[in-house]
Amino acid sequence: MSLKVDGLTVYYQSLRGDVKAVDGATFEIADGEIMGLAGESGCGKSTLGKSLVRMDARMRYVDGRVELDGKELPVWDDRKMNPYRFKHVSIIPQYALSALNPTRKIGTMATELLASRDIPLNGVVDEFKRRLKIVGLPEDVLERFPIELSGGMKQRVVMVLSSLLDPSLLIADEVTSALDVSTQRAVSELLVEFRDRGFVKSMIVITHDLSVLYQIADTILVMYAGKLAEKAPAETVVHAPAHPYTRMLISSLPEVGVRYAEKRLIGIPGRPPSLLEPPTGCRFKTRCPLAFEKCAEEPPFVEVAPGQAAACWKATA
Amino acid sequence: MWRYLFRKVSIYVVTFVVAVSIDWAIPRFMPGDPIQGLLSRMQAQPQASEELTSFYTEAFGFDVPLWKQYLNFWAALFQGDLGLSITNYPIPVTELIMGALPYTLALLVPAILLSFWAGNKVGALAARRKTLDNTVLPMSYVLTATPQMWLGIILAWVFASSLALFPVSGAYGFALQPEWSVEFARSFLHHWILPFSALFLVAFGGWAIGMRNLIIYELEADYSNYLASLGAPTRLVRKYAYRNALLPQITGLALALGAVVAGAIVVEIVFSYPGLGTLTLNAIENRDYFLIQGIFLFLITGVLIANLVIDIAYVFIDPRTRVGMQGGA
Amino acid sequence: MAVSDRDAAVVPTGAPAPSLETTATTAPGGGRPLAAAPLRGRSEFRYFALRNWKFVVGLGVVLAFFVLALVGPLLTDNTPFEFSGPTDQAPSSEYWFGTTSFGQDVFAQFVYGLRAAFLVGVLGGGIAWLLGAAVGFTAGYRGGWVDDVLNMLTNVVLVIPTLAILIIVAAYINVHSYATEAILIGLTSWPWAARAVRAQTFSLKTREFVDVARLSGRGTRQIITTEIAPNMSSYLLMMFILLFGGAILIGASLDFLGLGPSASMSLGLMMNNAFLSSALLLGTWWWFVPPGLGIIAIVGGLYVMNVGLDEIFNPKLRET
Amino acid sequence: MLEGDSLMLNVETCCKSYRVGAFGGGELLAVQNVSFDVHPGEVVSLIGESGSGKSTIGKMILRLLKVTRGNIVFDGVDISTLGGRELKAYYADVQGVFQDPFSSYNPIFKADRVFTMLRSEYFSGLSATDWHAKLEKSLDAVSLNPGDVLGKYPHQLSGGQLQRMLIARALMLDIRLLVADEIISMLDASTRIDVLNLLGDLKSRGLGILFITHDLSLGNYISDKTMILRRGNVVELGATELVFGNPVHPYTKTLLASVPQLHTKWQDVDVTIGAPPAPGNGGGQLVLAEGSLELVEVEPSHFAALDGDGAAP
After folding, report:
1. pLDDT one-digit tens code per residue, A124-154
2. Residues of C in Cβ contact (< 8 Å) with D49
3. How far apart are the C-alpha atoms of D69 and D141, rounded to whole Å?
4. Spatial separation of the C-alpha atoms in residues D18 and D27, rounded to whole Å
5. Which of A188, B41, C131, D34 fits a 20 to 30 Å CA distance from A117?
């Protein structure tokens, strides 16, 4: 097992109290696995991803354990976490287009960063250039300032830099959302290539777009309102989802070929609950057509079929 | 980059033309007759008055059509002719100004540069560090709110009158003449410390506050978060944030020039420092209009040149001005 | 020039990065470019305002001096210029702040001087605020050649040192009242405010609620006053405070130079009198210390209050 | 082009250019010679990546931007000629809804303000009861419960609710054409389809809709006619089933090949479409004028551009 997360609970501090953004997340990622992490905005997927690398000032660790390659990650301690970052666990942030210092050349910034981590430069810089070539960027981007690059180019530079030290786990947070369709495909396919070439051992790809995950992920983890809803291989999630939320979500997505006049899709009525004071029991019960008395109790996140886990009483029964 | 500089320079050229025009227009279009006003203030004898009237009329060049007056004004300007001082008749205004200028520059240039350097360093140190922030910040607010002349008066009172550590006025000892000698230099420095401190301290406060706030913004910026996510030590994150926070401060430096110059004028007066400020006060008290107009033009030219220098420096520091608007997401 | 076509597939939420133009709008002495997000509702403002010591202390000091300026003159029978008592007397129960070399009551001078300071600050700052807002809104909302012209005007007035132009103007016209002085200050100190408002307007007018208002048949003026300005209210308030403080400082310098009204008392004129009468050498500190402290208290109070406001409106600046 | 009497909106060789450079020296063409029309009860999709000029076209139709060259004709009247009062009347026929629901509401006022603004400009004669009846009717038409949405601040409502309110606002005016600019791209997946369906319902009531989107599957789902834009040029235009079923222009093929689908992998799409995947930086930025493209009819009601890239239909 590359990554083991057990009962991870992280709150977001807000003016009105704690937002219970990630509540008791428990899952594993195998070596070489690309896990897609999907869900609607505010479901906690980004918080989960960030908390594995660096909690920002407003995030508060509450509970849980994270293990990477058999060693515990001190996610609650910003300083103790530092030696692991970049080398063992790394992130392509959501804001990749503004992640580069605007007044530093890409190459200067990278070497200064490496030097500050006491990483010998000789081999790494050549490897950096080699990988830039792999993602289709000319070597001379090292001599350029971020403003001289297009959005897609910046995205790729950040991808290469974040994974430069061959981390065990790479978290890709909404890397394709800000890109145009054609760039989106190229960048997504590069993520797979990074894994195939062994630049990273395993990966969490966070996105709201299930269809992108279907294209590149091995498994998909669906979150709803701070809780894990379902985890299964990508094919299973798309073709045979166990959780009613996943099922309704998948069937509401229009695809090329589906037309209003021929087949009217329907959405999920209602909206997700506030995570300031989330309801007890299943958090999806108010929007769920299958809800029954037992849903007042919280459903455990358990295996419902081989390789498929879900948090739903109906799926378990 | 060239377009950026061209735009800036064109603004300065227009500003200069406007300033010269104001300088020319004010005595001509202000309500009341400036010459009569002058004479009434000087309480001249009736027969002298007539003579003076014709003298001023000629000196201002009032006896030709307006457009010609305007052109003459420019022509004289390009020959470095700003007229003659009335109080120090017949010394040319330019000569008086050139004599005072070195003293003002000796105060201004170090005060501007050192306060900028020290204020930014201290402000950056204070940001996000509780104890320092709680001492540096309140002190800086008090300093920025202090009128420079008052700080000068207090410094003079405490360190010169009361403690007698420094001389209370002048730029060098009475017995000395300006020359390149160790003795003169020592005396000069001794006289220079207090007025310099008054200017330095007030400006320091402003820069410290500005940097403290700017760097907090930079530390919250995406690139800072990204660096921290990759495990970069605080040292590197702060270094980057500092460099980027410095850019708006440099723009601010250009804007603050006017205020520093104003400060220098009043501080010089407090210490009877023989620079442009003291010259200005004398000119105001004696209604020496040519001198006032000349100082005005000099100050503006100086500020414009300083602005241009800052703009050029900025191009070297901020790559974005060099690259222009290409690329970008 | 801003190309207003933003076709981005998914626009990440959050404000756009400030452009070079925006970062250039720095308040003198303030430093950081002003930027503020509207708070939701008045109660939220009150909640944070009362918990922000900078705001509370700053406002308290300014109000205290304002009250002193109002009632101070009623507490003394003396007027500022009247030779009412012994000369060069240190503070006593009779003359709270002592007397000048001419036997004038320093306390009387001080409280009347405070009045002048508030007058110059509010009026001068107010005029600069109005001009800055008018120019900024027009340039920012209209764009095009109107913007080019106003921008040039702003930049020209911006680089001319305010005091220099005031010196030459005040030298020719006799400033008889603080109102005149305030008007002169107001007319020359608006440019940075205009630039700040312009930059804000630029970014606000690309917000879609402005388009919705236009599609509702609203006119330009209405959109500026009812859609854009309310979103900048915190910003406009802070701008006024900074201009207020700045006007007091400029006014004090003018008065100190003897370019202000000579027939009524101001804090700057007190310093001028004290200085010219060699109070320094005589050691009559009670003459020249109070006016400076008064200015520091008011202007410093305003600045600290402004920082408090800034923290209230910008959660990022709040210390954790 | 088609039956003259039912024609509502006609965009004729419309161009938009921006001046660039310090003193307006350069010219940036955001839209070049775009022509199309919209009939009542028809949904026309404008599909393109960033910089394709699709939003610019929408804004020009809404008179939020001026047309540089060409005409936009509504009911036979060139809209650039409309003055104050006529413009107001035009807005009673044509309205828009935009991408970001939260940015469409002034954050410091209650969300109802979009309605009250309309009341003061268009329905000042209406009594309070009549106004409320009308308001409830339009909220009902977009499946909103007045009690849920009235009297609240924008941040208290969901993106979907806010977009519906804006559509309700447009419906109060009995409009005939709605410009829907990326109106669901910022909504969550579980609710966006309902807003899309709402557009479909409005269409069946005779409303013409210009649906602007970057998402091909959305355009495909809802529209009768599709127009693919690239860098301000129309590259392909025609009945939706023809453009998607038989894409002709390489750019259209690239787009279709790049769209992530939920049931077909990219590799399989490549095989069916027969187009190489985009070499990375596809759509990209606005470019300086390179001459506009000529449209050729490839089959009845299906046009494609003859490209400089040698793309023959």
Report:
1. 999 999 999 999 999 889 999 998 888 889 9
2. 7, 9
3. 38
4. 6
5. A188
Per DSSP, the three-state class of B287 is coil
Cβ contact (<8 Å) for B319 and A103? yes
CA distance D84 to chain C (A): 8
pLDDT tens per residue across span D121-146: 899 888 999 999 999 999 988 888 88
Mean pLDDT confidence for D292-298: 77
Which residues from B are below 8 Å from A when comparing CB atoms?
A: 221-223, 225-233, 235-236, 240, 243-244, 247, 317-320, 323, 326-329
Name the residue facing A113 among B227, B243, B329 (closest C-beta): B227
What's chain A's average pLDDT? 91
Q: Which of C297, C278, C300, C299 is nearest to C288 (CA)?
A: C278
Specify the pTM.
0.85
Residues of D with CB under 8 A from a CB of A: 49-50, 158, 160, 188-194, 196-197, 200, 214, 216-218, 220-222, 240-241, 244, 254-263, 265-266, 277-285
- CATH number for the region C47-313 comes to 1.10.3720.10
Which domains are assigned to chain B?
2-77 (no CATH), 93-328 (1.10.3720.10)
pLDDT digits (tens, 9 = 90+) for C110-120: 999 999 999 99
Q: Look at A23-32, C310-319, D80-89 and tell me which has the smallest mean pLDDT.
A: C310-319
Residues of B in contact with A73 (CB under 8 A): none
Residue A254, pLDDT above cutoff 70: yes
Residue D3 pLDDT > 60 = no
ipTM of the complex, rounded to two decimals: 0.85
Question: Which of D189, D221, D279 faces A259 most closely, judged by CB atoms?
Answer: D221
Residues B326/A146, Cβ–Cβ less than 8 Å: no
**Distance from the A126 Cα atom to the nearest Cα atom in chain C, whole angstroms:** 33
Contact D134, D126 (CB under 8 A): yes
Among A29-43, C245-259, C301-315, the range scoring the smallest mean pLDDT is: C301-315
What residue spans define the domains of chain D?
9-306
For residue C29, pLDDT beyond 50: no
Which positions in chain C touch A181 (Cβ < 8 Å)? 9
Nearest CA-CA partner of D219 in D73, D52, D27, D19: D52
Q: Which of B207, B200, B219 is nearest to B121 (CA)?
A: B207
Out of D55, D91, D105, the one facing C5 most closely (by C-beta) is D55
- Work out whether strand D177-181 and strand D26-38 pair parallel, antiparallel, or are unpaired: unpaired
CATH topology of domain D9-306: Rossmann fold (3.40.50)
Which of chain C's residues have a Cβ under 8 Å away from the Cβ of B281? 257-258
- Gap between the Cα atoms of C128 and C246, Å rounded: 10
In this complex, do B153 and C274 lie within 8 Å of one another by their Cβ atoms? yes
**What tokens were used for A139?**
């070597």
Question: Residue C105 contacts by C-beta under 8 Å, 6 or more apart in sequence?
Answer: C76, C78, C80, C82, C84, C85, C95, C97, C99
Q: How much is the average pLDDT of B193-199?
A: 93
Q: What is the pLDDT of residues A29-85, one digit of tens each?
A: 999 999 999 998 888 999 999 999 998 888 899 999 999 999 999 999 889 999 999
Residue D46 scores a pLDDT above 90: yes
Interchain contact C218–D (C-beta under 8 A): yes
* All structural domains of chain C with their residue ranges: 47-313
To the nearest whole angstrom, how far is the Cα of D46 from the nearest Cα of chain B?
22
Query: Is the Cβ pair B6, D21 closer than 8 Å?
Result: no
**Residue closest to B247 by CA, chosen among B176, B305, B297, B320:** B320
